[in-house]
Design brief:
globular; alpha/beta; Rossmann fold; five-stranded parallel β-sheet; about 160 residues; two-stranded antiparallel sheet
Length: about 160
């Protein structure tokens, strides 16, 4: 595809960030979020169940919590991405531990790539995203034109 095959979806400087962590990675995400609290406070935060409760308590910031991941929270975040209600995904997942909801995890990561949102799957990639000047500035996310045509058909 060439550049003319894409539409631009403007995203303001205040991003809608989803924070997710598997059980073995919750402490890592909480530690990372505590270290980056001031940056995160500039944005709207979302999380799956337990992670959201822990973040709210640790950061003393509002966090919109969905269901727990195994109960559908990963899918709710995926739906938020599709509905353009989530701009960025920070997902500390555990690649060495089988999860009962692995298909949901795969679907969430797939939909994040389909809709071209930034995704961090570990602390290093999360550090790169949180320190990027793009996080706090306006940004035009590119979406294939075929998505726009499909969305317009669905909305009419």
């Amino acid at each position: 595809m060439n550049e003319n095959s894409y539409s631009q979806l403007p995203i303001g400087p205040k991003k809608k960030i989803a924070l997710v962590a598997h059980d073995n990675k919750k402490d890592d995400l909480i530690s990372w979020a505590r270290f980056n609290r001031d940056a995160l406070a500039q944005h709207t935060l979302y999380a799956t169940g337990t992670t959201g409760m822990l973040l709210t308590k640790e950061l003393d910031l509002p966090v919109h919590s969905f269901q727990s991941g195994p109960l559908g929270g990963d899918l709710q975040i995926g739906a938020g991405i599709v509905e353009r209600a989530i701009d960025c995904l920070i997902f500390f997942w555990d690649p060495l531990e089988a999860q009962p909801h692995d298909p949901d995890v795969k679907a969430l990561l797939r939909i994040a790539v389909v809709w071209n949102i930034p995704v961090a799957c570990n602390r290093s990639s999360a550090d790169f995203i949180i320190t990027s000047p793009l996080l706090s500035s306006e940004y035009n996310r590119l979406l294939p034109l075929e998505y726009e045509a499909y969305i317009r058909r669905m909305e009419s």
